[in-house]
Amino acid sequence: MRLILGAALAAGAVTLAGGAHAAAPKFTPGACAGDYTGVPNKIECGTLTVDETRGGPGARRVSIPVTIVKAISPKAGLPPVVYLHGGPGGGTVEAVGRVMRSPAGKELVGVDQDWIYFDQRGGGLAQPMLDCGQVAMSDAGPLSDAAAHQLIACGQRLKESGVDLTRYNAEEVVKDVQDLRKTLGLKQIDLAGVSYGTRIALAVVKHDPSGVRAVVLDSPWTPEAKWAEGGPEMVSDAVKEIFKRCAADTDCNAKFPHPGADLDAVANKLLAGPVTANGRTYTPDLLGGFLMDAAYSGPDARALPATVAKFAAGDFSALDDTRAGAGYAEAQHLTHLCKEEFPFESEAAMRRGAQRDPVTRLMANSFGRYFQVCKTYAVGAPDPVEAQPVSSPIPTFFLAAEIDPGCPPAVAKAAVGRFSKGQLTIVPNTTHGVFRGSACARKMIRSFLADPTAPVDQSCLHPEHDKFVFDLG
Question: Which of 6, 256, 339, 428 matches a 20 to 30 Å C-alpha distance to 175?
């Protein structure tokens, strides 16, 4: 069942009638999005309405859906946790009910602290939504020249409709976080970011940490990290990590003795020219995008040796879902990356690095299209501060997956030393978004938030994460 957020959300994202001056930030209680059947927690929902351009002459407002999961057994002194979803361009409020029915929700969310979810401006159910429809892209970039042209046309349409694309980025989301805190009357909050949500959390720490008591960064991505430069190598390295575990696993090695060589052969075949099978055309871009997504995902990573064997046998059907798109608001994805990431990176350096091996070569063109599309997005001048490392005395828990093609553990290792009260745990044999699949990670997060000054007890890592369990098909 899908509940609609009500009139406040529908009306809040358009230009105010008559060109009136924009009003102060406001939180309006309202109906919830999503299905909460079987969820024992009390759920409160509403809409945060803020200026699209704070302090500017425009009257356009942005509507941000909010869901609050009340703690079942609240502990005195523990503030609410504000959850920062990834993407960029993702969403979260529609999925909160599903999360709450999962082990991750039951063991972590709304136990002794309230948790606050919201869709970041431009994504999810926020209005305006910077969505471009079904575009073939992944975090490795647009997967065809046609997809790049779709994204360029989408950005132009949004600009012509009056959307100020300079106002959909991390610094603006920081202001939304603080407006949400203030309109809800909260003196303190904790932050829990996942994937690109960690980049948002670090922007809060950098630009306005008012009221922030503690920070959890799951699968950290930092401002100084390079999305495209080294991106193909990060994907290839994650795939190699998976295959290394297959070689060490008796059953996996017996059934799939050389997945790396098989994948290189398939990659070289596609690099030599598109392959047609069952009436569908398969390209290097599709395989590169698939590999990035597969190494992100626990189930897909565990099945990767078996999937590669199918590729080697001429069955490319596993790539069909990749062409369907990334599942996020593409233009919001780009307003962030074109402002915060790619202005500080070199396409030429990316292409040089992408010549390292057959897998990296698969992604050179898709990552390159990011740069071409960004040249057309009117996101405003980049601020060099957005590429500078963050340091902070706020207690911060870095939680990294050992296998991650987008936010590898090296990123967290390089950053934690700049946090005087920072702690780092690299969870063995796990993939991106650690808390979702790891009971130990959830236990460590709750322990850290209960007392951010105490050392995190990592003893639960064993035996839970001593082995990478393959799906051998």
Answer: 6
